[in-house]
Design a protein that fits this description.
By secondary structure, the protein is an alpha/beta fold. The protein has helices at residues 21-24, 30-43, 103-119, 136-146, 161-167, 183-188, 196-206; strands at 3-7, 13-18, 123-126, 152-156, 173-177, 191-195. Strand 4, helix 5 (161-167) and strand 5 form a beta-alpha-beta unit.
Amino acid sequence: MPKVALTNMRGETIGEIELSEELFGSDVNTAAMHLTVRSYLANQRQGTKSTKTRTEVRGGGRKIYRQKGTGNARHHGNRAPQFRHGGVVFAPKPRDFVVTVPRKIRRLALKSALTCKAQDQEITVLDKLALDAAKTKKMAEVLKNLGAPRKALVVVPASDEMLLRATRNLPGITLTHVGSLNVYDILAHERFIITQEAVRLVEEVYAS
């Protein structure tokens, strides 16, 4: 089973913790991770963009000049795409960008992402993460003690308003909880910081 050091908020190693082989020591499936990340990014799109084609632009009902004898190209109205105030060619319309991924593929991708972090030694396990005040300075001090890079994902057992307020002004640092853990956030950050309690919850929820 993979083992990592157990650290306190002062950055001191106080022990060792074993991680689930199923979650942190599985085979890495790159294709599953790619599909899941693509689905995550696609699902963030609202799909509300819309412009008008030449049939929807107001005006242009009269033929601008006669068909023959002018020496110019043949045109009907002045709302064709080549004219100013004309319609748009292949105009974008509201659409659904959702990419559906089977549940088993999503689980496989999550296991692969966690395994990548374990193999690259980018996981830091904290014994606990608790602040006595919602101060950005205090959270920044904890991250400095841990040697966290510019981009780090901090995972806690459940939503914590105090930790959220202390973290949200730190650029590159993302705070999430076990229920909102996703493959994109794991792969997009250089360091995966998680509390000991959150590790057990992740193993309980996702190791199936």
